[in-house]
Amino acid sequence: MHQLANLLVASGVKRGDRVGVFLNRCLDTATAIYGIMNAGALYVPIDPNAPAERVEFLIQHCTIRCLISNDMQHKKLQKLQEKNILPEVLIGAKVEEHKRDYTWEEVAQMPKTNPNINTSERDLAYILFTSGSTGKPKGIMHSHYSGLSYAKLTANLYQLQADDVFGNHAPIFFDISTLGYFTAPYVGATTIIASDAHIMMPASLSNLIAQEKISVWYSVPLALIQMLQKGAINQRDWSSLRWLLYAGEPFPVKHLRALMQEVPQASVSNIYGPTETNQCTYYNLPAIPKSDEPISIGQVWRNTEMLILDENEEEVVEGEVGELLIRSATMMEGYWRDPERTKKSLYKVVQDSGLVRTFYRTGDLVREDAENQLQFLGRKDRQIKTRGFRVELDEVEVAIITHEAVNEAAVWATTAEDDTTIICAVATLHTNLSKADLIVYLKSKLPVYTIPQQLALVEDLPRTATGKIDRNRLKKISLSI
Questions:
Q1: Per mean pLDDT, which range of 5-14, 71-80, 123-132 is the poorest?
Q2: Which of these, 23, 134, 405, 446, has the minimum number of CB atoms within 10 Å of its CB?
Q3: 52-56, 138-142, 477-481: which has the minimum mean pLDDT?
């Protein structure tokens, strides 16, 4: 860590500079993250599997002058060099005709002393880029204070300790990875970074949990569902698991129930929070769910405040639906080089003292129930109007998933040739089911105006790099019933 930090400083990296991390899942990612922050800079994860256009955009948009990579990315680095986009300093790999590059062996020759950069807790630590509504990625800026607050809050909430072994399934450009990179070292625990090869094979991944005696697992539901169905969990020793944490998408309850039956000793927590807040609510399941009702996202954790506002930006009465706004120690500083988007995403409350409380607008619709638990009802922008009726697309999606033959489903709206809004859906199956039978089932669950006019049964759903369903790609699919 210190050796990399010293090389970065010697290479001209200054406090506040952005350093790109262009790495696959490997141990070098940990060295890169800690070395960059130790040098007073901030790390910008760049997915090596992203389209070249996106990689080039991030390098230029963040004015990245130093990139950390390895020889596995040599061909992609060479193409960046040919386009004259490769940053002036490259660490971890050598590229032809690039003058300032250093191997990891050269990094190891640097002094092991701390460069002692005077970094403030409010300085930026990292920028995570997610897809933006404009088509261009949006950079979410987090500070050292945000990252450390997350480590402290997760350590306290889940009583994490030094003898825990964390399974890190997520790539570093996904905020789920911060549990392994921030919280684990904070409590002195061990993190096992799952390799790309492990990720490709559910059986290999489930075997990794058994072999490494992982006690804390955190991932999107997809990874757990794949291990449940193809990972031979019943043949593995997962007795070391004490926490199963999931986030990113709702977990189909029938799959969650089956998983909890396989590992009854493990506690399960549904974690909610957009990348802008990392995590902000949690729901620790008290028992295996008996019904197929969606799992609550629970309540806000410590050092966090929430508001639920209606369309007129008035606080809703108890039990009413509204947009969730969050004020937390883990909240972002704003969007990189996008003050207008930052301004629109924030809601300010001026107190009598003149002090301002700033909340992040999540865009998610919730309702607080009689037990003060939050029920997630979908995106504010996922409510549509069709045939004169208001429809929650997430409600339709949940209804499809409840069918015993359905594995996963996705629902979206599109505009027909006559300019009317119609509902589209796709589903994956694990047993035989016809589209006609699925529609009959939905008619028993939903009002007729919410039944998808276009429906397809597919082998798999398109995914983002973080494992979530890629709804933007789905919208481009032509369907027919």
A1: 123-132
A2: 134
A3: 477-481
Q: In 3D, which of 139, 144, 147 has the Cα closest to residue 179? A: 147
Distance CA 405, CA 144 (A): 46
Contact 62, 139 (CB under 8 A): yes
Residue type, 459: E
Q: Can you say how many angstroms the Cα of residue 463 is from the centroid of all Cα atoms in its chain?
A: 13
Helices (H) and strands (E) in the chain, counts: 16, 25
Distant-in-sequence, close-in-space partners of 278: CB < 8 Å, separation ≥ 6: 142, 146, 150, 175, 178, 330
Q: Give which of 69, 72, 106, 104 is closest to 86, Cα–Cα.
A: 69
One-letter amino acid at 143 equals S
Going from the N-terminus, what domains does the chain have, and what CATH number goes with each? 2-119 (3.40.50.980), 387-474 (3.30.300.30)
Indicate the Cα dihedral angle 366, 179, 52, 5, nearest 10°: 140
Crossing angle for the helix pair 221-230 and 202-211, nearest 10 degrees?
90
- What pLDDT shows up at residue 387? 66
The average pLDDT across 83-99 equals 94
Q: Which residue has the tokens 């607008």?
A: 361
- With a cut of 80, say whether residue 258 has pLDDT above it: yes
C-alpha distance from residue 440 to each of 276, 387, 404, 447, 452 (Å): 40, 20, 14, 12, 12
**Is residue 191 within 8 Å of 166, Cβ to Cβ?**
yes
Q: pTM score, two decimals?
A: 0.86
- What pLDDT digit, counting tens, does each position of 278-301 carry? 999 999 999 999 998 999 999 999
Query: How would you class 344 by CB atoms within 10 Å of its CB: exposed for 0-12, middle for 13-18, buried for 19 or more?
Result: exposed
The structure tokens listed for 241 are: 């698991």
Q: Would strands 267-272 and 243-246 be described as parallel, antiparallel, or unpaired? A: parallel
Amino acid identity for residue 153 in this structure: L
Give the pLDDT confidence of 169-195 residue by residue, as tens digits. 999 999 999 999 999 999 999 999 999
Phi, psi for residue 420 in degrees, rounded to 5: -85, 155
